[in-house]
Design goal:
The protein is α/β, with parallel strands linked by helices. It has a single domain, classed as NAD(P)-binding Rossmann-like Domain (Rossmann fold), CATH 3.40.50.720. Helix content is 46%, strand content 13%. The chain starts with 18 loop residues before the first strand and ends in a 7-residue tail after the last strand. Strand 5, helix 6 and strand 6 form a beta-alpha-beta unit. It contains nine helices and seven strands.
Length: 283
């Protein structure tokens, strides 16, 4: 864990005094989220399956003047989840915010999806999300006063949890059997968690992106090119042309949505999936 000077950052400190754990925080959306929370005053643990990526994010967080922690996390491994949560609590004293951006994508013909492929995607996206939320929420509930637990109603928030689903979870995808199923499940997991932890005023919501130009998006385009002979750039351009706002989402678009859902401005929002997709889905 490290700490450094602020460097003159003047962004509003909405999360001053808060601690956050970001799964998938080593790259892409997760890194953008971790840095956004840190810029707004949070101390942040960045967890990633690639330890060097987590360490790089943690170093940037320290450069913003916040406490930081780098963690190795394979979110498909429940033991890894428990260790990451325990280390975050030990370092920071608790977890106020948890954001899970960790996930994998799969594109293949419905008829060609293998059991191994299905199991891998479901283990990361669906099982990983469920048990990561469970592990963090358990620690959040531990901090709730006994009188609040007896009352079954809290007047202030005892935690913010944000999961990441996808527009592919809004309806079926002919070439994304496992991925679409797993992301639909994330929406359901988010709703179940929101109901389970509402008595403690722990807000649980999801963000649903469309196109964000990350390595995962690029890898998926290459996978479709390999599997179906689809020109990756042409396919991507055609997809973006169908977005009403006519552009892909940016990393900051995603981080801004997360920051809102983790702020006091969203205290009366729970169990919702926010489409941050340029208008692609309107439900």
């Amino acid at each position: 864990m490290s700490m450094a000077s602020d460097g003159g950052n003047k962004m509003e400190k909405r999360f001053a005094g808060k601690t956050a754990l970001v799964a998938g925080g080593g790259a892409g959306i997760g890194k953008a989220v971790a840095l956004r929370l840190a810029r707004e005053g949070a101390d942040v643990a960045a967890a990633d399956i690639v330890p060097e990526a987590a360490e790089a994010t943690a170093a940037e967080i320290a450069g913003l003047g916040r406490k930081s922690l780098a963690l190795k996390l394979n979110i498909a491994d429940i033991r890894d989840i428990a260790a990451a949560v325990d280390r975050t609590v030990a370092a920071f004293g608790g977890i106020d915010i948890f954001v899970n951006t960790a996930g994998i994508v799969q594109s293949n013909s419905f008829l060609d999806v293998s059991e191994a492929e299905w199991d891998r995607v479901i283990a990361v996206n669906q099982k990983g999300t469920a048990f990561a939320v469970q592990a963090v929420a358990r620690r959040m509930v531990e901090r709730v006063p006994e009188e609040v637990k007896r009352e079954g109603r809290a007047d202030r928030s005892y935690g913010k949890i944000v999961t990441f689903t996808s527009i592919s979870g809004r309806r079926g995808r002919a070439y994304q059997l496992a991925y679409a199923a797993s992301k639909a499940a994330v929406i359901s997991i988010t709703q179940s968690a929101a109901l389970a932890f509402a008595p403690y005023n722990i807000n649980v919501n999801a963000v649903s992106p469309s196109v964000v130009m990350t390595k995962m998006w690029e890898d998926n385009n290459r996978e479709k090119e390999r599997a179906f002979g689809i020109d990756a750039k042409k396919s991507s351009d055609e997809f973006i042309a169908r977005i009403p706002l006519k552009r892909p989402g940016s990393l900051e678009d995603m981080a801004a949505a997360v920051a809102f859902l983790c702020s006091t401005d969203a205290d009366y929002i729970t169990g919702q999936t926010l489409n941050v997709d340029g208008g692609f889905e309107m439900n």
